[in-house]
Amino acid sequence: MNADDPTRPRYLRRHLLGIEGLSPQEITILLDRSETYVLQNRQANKKKSVLSGRTIINLFFEDSTRTRTSFELAGKRLGGDVINMSVATSSVKKGETLIDTAMTLNAMHPDVLVVRHPQSGAVSLLSDKVNCAVINGGDGSHEHPTQALLDALTIRRRLGHLDGLVIAICGDILHSRVARSNIHLLNTMGARVRLIAPNTLLPAQVERLGVEVFQNMSEGLKDVDIVMMLRLQRERMQGNFFPSIREYFNFFGLDEAKLSNAKENALIMHPGPMNRGVEIDSDLADDFGRSVISEQVEMGVAVRMACLEILTENLDSEEFRNL
Questions:
Q1: What is the percent of the chain with per-residue pLDDT over 70, rounded to a whole number?
Q2: Inter-axis angle of helices 177-188 and 145-159, to 10 degrees?
Q3: pTM
Q4: pLDDT tens-digit map of 1-56
């Protein structure tokens, strides 16, 4: 379908701040557009000019390799001008507030800001102060919408659908923005979500999110279609959440014995970076028959290209100019 086709379903939002609140149709629009970029990224000539003349600023207040590189590559493959702003050497380190930073950048007239911040809600706050589109690259323990979208695209391409699948998210749920975004997306798209973690790494009243909760890997992985492992986010932990790394892997790390409870063809996922021998056995991480971890990275570029293209299209629409 042509990008200028007025009958084509549209994502009618100025920003992408989270998955919570998106409709099944909105999620499908983002996934379908991402799909168009998967094949393009596998061609010799990967570049388009749809963002020619556009400026994308990657504003990362936390270190990142995968997400920032993926957004940079996505912007450049679409022909945009991409600037990576290093907060470590910016005026933020000199005491400038988030709002002042937003106002300064806004005066430079960027088209898209991709923001990662350690505080939940900071990206939403910043989005209220700028005229451009804002994409949440991860805020605190709140959300990481493009990660959930790339995970969904990976699953959909492998299994053909999301509706009705049983998906286990395992590990550090408490500190994981990836888990939250995936819970919202998968529930919205009709999947059944199970959370598996020690009690110390589960948010209070997490069942209200519409999930099943297990504290035993063998029980939680029974007949699941997808096993999504999470990184232990020790940088966010204050106190002792488990006795030792060895004991954590023994009870909650993915190995052959625990995986045997899942369906025979169950897929293994991990948002990265992986701690091998802590969250997942190295042999399983590298099992090309079941592990789709490399595919997740590949889908990330396609998803971020789609998000950049869709949001910049909206900037040209009259209905968005006064939002």
A1: 89
A2: 50
A3: 0.93
A4: 455 566 667 898 999 999 999 999 999 999 999 999 999 999 999 999 999 999 99
Whole-angstrom distance, CA of residue 293 vs CA of residue 267: 9
Look at residues 180, 188, 157 and name the one whose alpha carbon lies nearest to residue 271. 180
Structure tokens at 9: 């379903």
Report phi then psi at 181, rounded to 5: -65, -40
Q: In terms of residues, how long is the chain?
A: 323
Q: Residue 162, class by beta-carbon neighbours within 10 Å (0-12 exposed, 13-18 middle, 19+ buried)?
A: buried
Tokens coding 156: 């959909």
Count of beta carbons in the 10 Å neighbourhood of residue 239:
5
* pLDDT tens-digit series, residues 117-136: 989 999 999 999 999 999 99
Closest CA to 151 of 302, 310, 311: 302
Mean pLDDT of 152-175: 97
CA-derived radius of gyration, the chain: 20
Query: Which amino acid is it at 57?
Result: I
H or E stretch covering 52: none
Q: SS3 letters for 109-144?
A: CCCEEEEEECCCCHHHHHHCCCCCEEEEEEECCCEC
Quote the tokens at residue 276. Answer: 């091998």
Phi, psi (degrees; rounded to nearest 5) at 291: -80, 130
Distance from the Cα of residue 104 to its chain's centroid: 27
User: What pLDDT score does 237 carry?
Assistant: 45
Partners of residue 267 on adjacent β-strands:
226
Could you give the angle at the alpha carbon of 137 between the alpha carbons of 134 and 138, nearest 5°?
120
Distance CA 126, CA 103 (A): 9
